[in-house]
Amino acid sequence: MGRVAELAGVSVRTLHHYDEIGLVRPSTRTVAGYRAYSAGDVERLREVLAYRRLGFGLREVAELVGDPSTDAVAHLRRLRGLLLERRDRADAMVTAIDRELEARAKGLKVTPEEQLEMLGARLYDAIGGAYTATRRTEPRIAAQIWDALGDAQTVLNVGAGTGSYEPADCDVTAVEPSAVMRGQRPAGSAPCVAAAAESLPFEDHSFDVAMAVSTVHHWGDPIAGLREMRRVARRVVVLTFDTDEPGWQDRFWLTRDYLPEFADVLAEFPSLAGMVDAIGARAEPVPIPWDCADGLFEAYWRRPGAYLQDHVRRAMSVWTRVGPEAEQRAVRSLSDDLDSGRWAERNSDLADLDAADLGLRLLIA
């Protein structure tokens, strides 16, 4: 244990604590009876220490390293994404600071917008490092999307992220502006182009279908991006969100009772009717299963305790957009209601539902 502590740069006391709480337990003993670490133990310790040094709490680390669906390679990709996120955000801040210093040296006025620019890059670069912890392909949603792709042979996936929902039986080209997200795409996944939806670097009708899954709300100009998809492909399939229905904020208990700021997040989001008109589409509802494998914002509608977990929230852009005060207030209120039983009483009608319509819509053009 002493040698492992020395190599890892931690105290023996830390390793004893990890052993006591079951986070990293040495699996062997020496002849003299001392605890010893196998190669597998060291690998797990490496993952634990890496997550700790990136700011994760012990409970979050235990959930991450204990995920049976995530192997050592997946952990390395996730850690790489987190480190790329920090590097990219630091680079963006340095560039913005240099630009402001140059402007001030010339006596130029620096606008409030330019001052705030130094705080970071794109939203996906802020949340992307945690994305693979919970965001996976949900087979039932995937089946609906792939059915809409029909007999397509060539598919463009716009705002592709880490590659969820890309069909394995098609020739896929991905487009993703975030370096953090591109860095987490699995080995062997579709080639990925660094570009934005509003300016796709392809000729007209280059693809059978252009698809976009849970990404339109991140685009600077959603309507322009949708029209670009229509330009480069013969057909378009988009998974997005409906804000046209009166009282849409009340469809989901989380936004109704705990996070009213969600409405402000989508205040400038195009109407469903506007998106439908932009590409000549029809819209069909996409029910969210109660045990949805994809940790999108509404995924845990029947598993409310998940929203108390930081790593779950970090993979949802909503929380970054509403800000830490609203997030902390919502989490505290939800935690209190779960402890008191108020949440269960207020949402008793959900207990027997297998799926819920919470506003996800598939646009098919």
UniProtKB/TrEMBL annotation:
InterPro entries given in the database record: DNA-bd_dom_put_sf, MerR-type_HTH_dom, MerR_fam, Methyltransf_11, SAM-dependent_MTases_sf
Cited Gene3D superfamilies: 1.10.1660.10, Vaccinia Virus protein VP39 (3.40.50.150)
One Pfam family this sequence matches: Methyltransf_11
Listed SUPFAM superfamilies: Putative DNA-binding domain, S-adenosyl-L-methionine-dependent methyltransferases
Keyword annotations: DNA-binding
Residues in HTH merR-type domain copies: 1-67
UniProt protein name: MerR family transcriptional regulator
Source organism of this protein record: Streptomyces roseoverticillatus
